[in-house]
């Protein structure tokens, strides 16, 4: 019986011939087991034999192509391997299973009454981590529409949206794609500026994931119009000072260009713009004006203004200006508002200094005169002179509350 190579090529034809040729064997039977396997995995297809008497065993794929003819490979597909052929069990394995391999595999035993059983191969496709599609972008005050999509699974995955551990109900839709299913869960939620960056989660569940889930994190990207605020400098500004105006900008997307202008005028020549900072060194009164910071994105525009007034410096010599005298430094450090007050505060220092010097001089004079007088005899002609000095002493007293003068007076009265 050397016809096995012939059978290999005309297996379906063989049936009739076989029926007439082979000897009868009562009680022979075959049993097949259904198989479920993950896509990409390996399937073991088994045909159990009962009372096997050496008949030909043929295994066919769902398209009824013969894979193995009594142990010999018939179809050129290396993914199929015959791993066992015993009188009890014939087993083949299929590696790297795909959904197209699904279907009934035939275990046939060619006897006088041809016997066959079908092993159904089912392929399970696990969902990937779902993807998020933005159907309608989030704009402050509007409704955003988000879809969570699991493009391939079998049986279909279950999707749910979660925010702060609470489920957001959505609209589920399924679309069959050959043997797999695409599932989506679409939510519509109102969004505000404060929702920007909020964390959402889309979870995919699947029976074959046994309790586990595939999770996609998504953070809300809420677009909003810019806000603009100029951070003003502290205190007043004088000629020669330098000034940095910072324009604080928000917005989503963050405005890329920040526009500085001066109302009804051009920006001063020496003004430098770096990012959101406008810098002006050595201010002069020609810098006076209203400065505008403007920014825009696709969702709106915003502006803020700052009015600059440059005051005359207290030393008031624009030509000299550079080496700052101590009094100027003092006011510079303290930045007391109001130039007028400061100009006044500078003047009394000079006046008080002068008065003090005068007083000290007077005290010395009085002392000298007093000593001189006490050394000499008390003369009536001196009394007149002393009364003049006395007046001086009273003035002194009023200023200092000191007792030098009164002492001098007492001494004189002795
Ligand atoms: C095998 O699967 C097929 C198709 O799904 C089904 O009709 C049959 O009853 C199953 N057989 C066994 C033994 O589970
Ligand atoms: C089929 O293969 C089995 C096992 O190798 C063998 O025992 C049997 O004789 C073969 N049958 C035919 C008809 O070649
Ligand atoms: C498994 O099969 C798929 C197509 O079904 C193929 O793209 C992939 O390369 C195969 N993997 C291996 C390891 O053979
Ligand atoms: C700019 O000029 C217009 C018209 O001359 C005037 O009405 C407006 O007050 C000016 N604005 C400033 C900030 O100077
Ligand atoms: C600039 O502003 C200061 C303060 O108000 C004012 O005294 C001065 O006259 C202004 N100078 C010019 C050129 O406008």
UniProtKB/TrEMBL annotation:
Keyword Membrane attributed: yes
Gene3D superfamilies xrefs: Immunoglobulins
Record domain Ig-like: where: 127-219, 226-309
Keywords recorded for this protein, A-Z: Disulfide bond, Immunoglobulin domain, Membrane, Repeat, Signal, Transmembrane, Transmembrane helix
Gene Ontology MF term list: vascular endothelial growth factor receptor 2 binding
Transmembrane segments: 349-373
Protein's cellular compartments: Membrane
Family according to the record: Belongs to the nectin family.
Protein name per the record: Cell adhesion molecule 4
Organism annotation: Triplophysa tibetana
Lineage: Eukaryota, Metazoa, Chordata, Craniata, Vertebrata
